[in-house]
Specification:
By secondary structure, the chain is of the alpha/beta class. The protein has nine helices and twelve strands.
Length: 258
């Protein structure tokens, strides 16, 4: 599988605090990667370091073998899209217009209403069950609907790399499952790398090919769900004794909440 993203000895953070410490990671296309860990472990910082909005103190990030610092922002936006925890547009746009704006890396301002883009809009509206909301103002939506609009904006961007920062927090269980199934399908259809930051260990275990455990800016474990989601690693990660079970005829580990 083609390598598309490489983290080389990265240390990064903020002027008053180093968050990530000497991280080394490789990512390939056609992969679904989950990043889990306690609050403050550096998960969001890692995503923003991958797109260059948080600069590295040492080391670097390569996107398709080119330093992220050397990419022009619009060209980088054709390679990587990110779905933030929360999305607050400056003005009260219609849902349809906000989604169309997600295609900005591929079009000029005067091309945003051409037929090809409209076809893409219809597809993402349908896949994310937003067709009936297309003419509603974004600010009138529920929290879950707003998250689905944010996801639709990234999907229409059609990048080979998609980063998701706890993008399911306002979605009900039904929409979480539907979205994970959609992402798994898109990973194969579009040959994508999807990196998902999540606090839902069972959801990540069920859908991701690979799990990275992050704590205090360092990697605790990295591998398939079956190889890394165990009581010992979770004890190290969360400082609690956590029981694990595997469902019958399945090699997928699940956390028992009790």
């Amino acid at each position: 599988m083609q390598k598309c993203l490489k983290v080389n000895n990265v240390t990064a953070g903020y002027p008053d605090k180093i968050v990530l410490k000497d991280l080394n990671l490789d990512f390939t296309l056609n992969s679904f990667v989950g990043i889990i860990g306690p609050n403050g472990s550096g998960k969001t910082t890692l995503l923003h370091t991958l797109i260059g909005t948080i600069p590295t103190t040492s080391g670097g990030v390569d996107v398709f073998e080119k330093s992220v610092a050397k990419w022009k922002r619009k060209e980088l936006a054709k390679q990587i899209s990110i779905i933030p925890q929360e999305f607050f547009p400056q003005f009260s746009y219609l849902v349809e217009d906000l989604i169309i704006m997600g295609n900005y890396p591929h079009s000029s301002l005067f091309q945003l209403n051409d037929n090809d883009i409209q076809d893409d809009v219809e597809e993402v509206l349908s896949r994310l069950e937003l067709t009936h909301k297309r003419k509603d103002f974004y600010r009138s939506l529920s929290g879950g609907e707003k998250q689905r609009v944010s996801i639709a904006r990234s999907l229409i961007q059609k990048t080979p790399i998609l980063l998701m920062d706890e993008s399911f927090s306002n979605l009900d269980l039904n929409h979480q499952i539907e979205l994970m199934n959609l992402l798994k399908k898109l990973k194969k259809e579009r040959n994508m790398l999807i990196i998902l930051v999540s606090h839902n260990i069972n959801l990540a275990s069920s859908y991701c090919d690979r799990i990275i455990m992050l704590k205090k800016g360092s990697i605790i474990a990295d591998g398939s769900p079956a190889s890394v989601i165990n009581s010992e690693n979770l004890k190290t990660l969360y400082d609690h004794n956590i029981n694990i079970m595997n469902y019958k005829d399945s090699n997928i580990p699940h956390v028992l909440y009790k």
